[in-house]
Write a structure and sequence with these properties.
Blueprint lengths: L8 E5 L4 H12 L3 E6 L2 H14 L8 E5 L5 H8 L7 E4 L14 H29 L2 E6 L12 H17 L9 E8 L5 H14 L3 H10 L9 H11 L11 E4 L9
Parallel strand pairs: 1-2, 1-4, 2-3, 4-5, 5-6, 6-7
Helix pairs in contact: 1-2, 1-8, 4-5, 6-7
Amino acid sequence: MDLGIAGKTALVCGASKGLGYGCAEALVREGVNVVIVARGAEALEAAAKKLAAAAAGSPTPFVKHVAADITTEAGRAAVFALGHDFDIVVTNAGGPPPGDFRNWDREAWIKAVDANMLTPIELIKATVDGMAKRGFGRIVNITSSSVKSPIDILGLSNGARSGLTGFVAGVARTPIAAQGVTINNLLPGSFDTDRLKGTMAGAAQKTGQDFDTVWEARKKNIPARRFGTPAEFGAICAFLCSIQAGYMTGQNVLADGGAYPGTY
C-alpha cells in the first residue's frame, strides 16, 4: 500500500531508540523527510545514520537530528529553528518513574505533567495551524496502554497521559478536522525496548526473582505470548500518518497484543 506521504516532512520526538526510532524508520521508508530529536547526542547521531541508510524514495528523503530536551522551551526552540512547517508530528517522551503515590511531591507531578501532557500540547500549538492552512497534517501522540487500563505503580503516567488524552479528544474535533488535520494517540502495551527491560529488572529486584523468570511471566500474560517490536509499532504509526487514515481522528489506538481485556 502506498501511504501517500512521500515528500512530507515529519518531526519525531524521542527517536534515538525504541518506539520513537521505530516510527521514524517506518516514515523514512515511506519517503518522508524526518527531523529526529532526543537528549542523547551520541545515540541520536547513530540513529540518524541508520535512518539515512534505511531511507527510500526518489529523491531520497533527508534525515536531520537535533540533540535537545523537547520537554523544555529551549529544546523546542532548537527544533523549531529548523522551521515550523512539519506535515507530521510524532510526540514522544520517556514515561515518569514508577512508585507509590504517597512518595510523589508536587515537583514530581509537575515534571510528569510537563513532559507527558504539556509538551505534546506545545508541539501541537506550534504546528497545527500551519498544517490546517496547507490542508494536510498528522499528529500522533505516543502515550500508553495505561490510559485504557491504569497500572497502580505508574500513577504519574496514568494521570499525565490521561490529561493529554482528554485534551486531544476535544481539539481533534475542532474545525481543523475539516482542514485535513488529524490528531490521534497511539497506546503501546509491552514492547521489547530498553524501558521495558529496565522495568522488568526493577520488578525482578523487588521480588527477588531472576530477570528471565519475570520476563517470561510477563509474556505469558499477553494473549499474543510475545512482546511487540518497535518496527511493527512504527508501521502502525506510519499508517496513522497516511492519506488512508484521513477519516480517523481523536482516536486512541491500542497496540498491546490483546492484553487489554475490555470490550470497549
